[in-house]
Every structure is written in structure tokens, then in C-alpha cells.
Amino acid sequence: MHTFKLMKTVTKIALSDKELELVCDTSWILTKHAVIQKVYTLFGEALQQMQSITAGNQLYLPAEWCAHSPKIAKGENYRLLPYVMLDYPRYFSKADTIAVRTFFWWGHFFSVSLQLSGVFKNQAEDTLLHHYEWLKSMGFSVCINDDPWEHDFGELNFVLVDQLTKEQFSGMLQRKFVKIAKKLPVQEWNSAPGFIASVFAELVELLKTDQAPRR
User: Fold this and answer.
1) Residue 204 class from Cβ within 10 Å (0-12 exposed, 13-18 middle, 19+ buried)?
2) Helix axes 119-130, 192-207, angle to 10 degrees
3) Is the pTM of this model over 0.70?
4) Domains of the chain
5) CA-CA distances (angstroms) from residue 154 to 142, 143, 183?
């Protein structure tokens, strides 16, 4: 018969006092689920306002604006933290994109961003440049990252339009995609519904044509 000796090993996976406290406490994770559900509800109500704004301007917007139904989704790991996003409108093809993404990032902010590429970017370039001063005054930021799917407002991803000259901003419009956005700190939760609706309305006014296109 063989006998085995249990070797004493030094564990490297011990919990800190704070980690042990959290793993024994179910209330914080239940609170987190409740908050995420409230974000879903908030985004659902915001979507109704967005669709109302769209309905009043539909003749002046690209047909692709309403090509696909809105989508609300959540995840657990954007920079290791939970998030919820609403995409409306959401038109993504290999060459062309027109989308507005409303984003909640745990511990950080709400944001509303407009992403354009391909034909939609080309059509909007003159309008965006024409509204350079307005974009500055309204507190919009423009993405300087080569990855359109980054949402952090850090200095490697977004810069305030106010910090760019008109010539520099014009150069940003020559990239493969354009993404402009605004954010609201999560501490201002109660202002989020109005913030989302107002930024969406601003983006609609920015993009709609002066003349109703023929259909």
C-alpha cells in the first residue's frame, strides 16, 4: 500500500480582508443587478423620446436611420467594469456606418456618441466643419483613436473640439471614421434622461438635410 504525504504549500490565492468581506456579502451584487435594470428602464424611456424626435424629422434623415430596430445590450467587461448600451439608429455595413450609441459605464459616465463612416461620413464632412464653432460651444468631443469601439474619454481616445483649431478638426474629418460624443458623470444620474434626449436632438439637427429628399 502506498502512502502519500500532503505537502504544505504556500497559497497564492488567499483573499484580502476586503475581498473576503465582499464575497460573504450578497447585498452589493444584488444592488448592482438592480442598478443595471434601472439603466435598462432609463434607456427604454430614452428610446421612446428618440423615436419621437426621429418621427418629427424622418423626411430629413437618411433612409438607413430607421433601417434596423433599436438594440439595448449589456456586458460585464468594458475595462473590467459593467456597461449597458443602446444603439439607435444602428446601421453598420462593411463600408458605411451611421449610428448613435448611448452608453452607461459603471463608475464613470453616460455618453451619447455619433459614429459615421463611408458615404455617411463623406456626406456629413462639410456640415460638421461648418458647425465647428457650434460643436465647440456645445461641449462635444471627437475621437482621436484608430479604434471606433473605444468609449473611454481619456486623452488617448477623445479630445474636446474646443481644444482643436478648425484646421485640426478638419483633419480629423479626413479619417476613416468620425465619432463625436458628449458625456455625463454617473454622479449626475437624475440628469441622464434629459441629457440623452437633448444630445440626440442635437445630433439629429446636425445631420438632417435642408430639403426633404425624394423617396
Assistant:
1) buried
2) 100
3) yes
4) 17-207 (3.30.930)
5) 11, 10, 12
Continuous segment of H or E residues that includes residue 180: strand 177-185
Question: Do residues 191 and 184 make contact, with C-beta atoms less than 8 angstroms apart?
Answer: yes
Give me 143's grid cell: 475621437
- Comparing C-alpha atoms, which of 186, 198, 183 is closest to residue 38? 186
Dihedral of CA atoms 172, 106, 201, 169 in degrees, nearest 10, equals -10
* CB within 8 Å of 84: residues ≥ 6 apart: 36, 39, 40, 43, 72, 73, 74, 103, 104
Distance (Å, whole) CA 85 – CA 15: 33
Q: Are 103 and 113 in contact (CB under 8 A)?
A: yes
User: CA 156, CA 27: separation in Å to the nearest integer?
Assistant: 36
**pLDDT tens digits, residue range 12-61?**
789 999 999 999 999 999 999 999 999 999 999 999 999 999 999 998 99
Name the DSSP class of 172: H
- Rounded Cα gap, residues 140 and 199, in angstroms: 10
Measure the CA angle with vertex 120, ends 118 and 124; round to 5°: 120
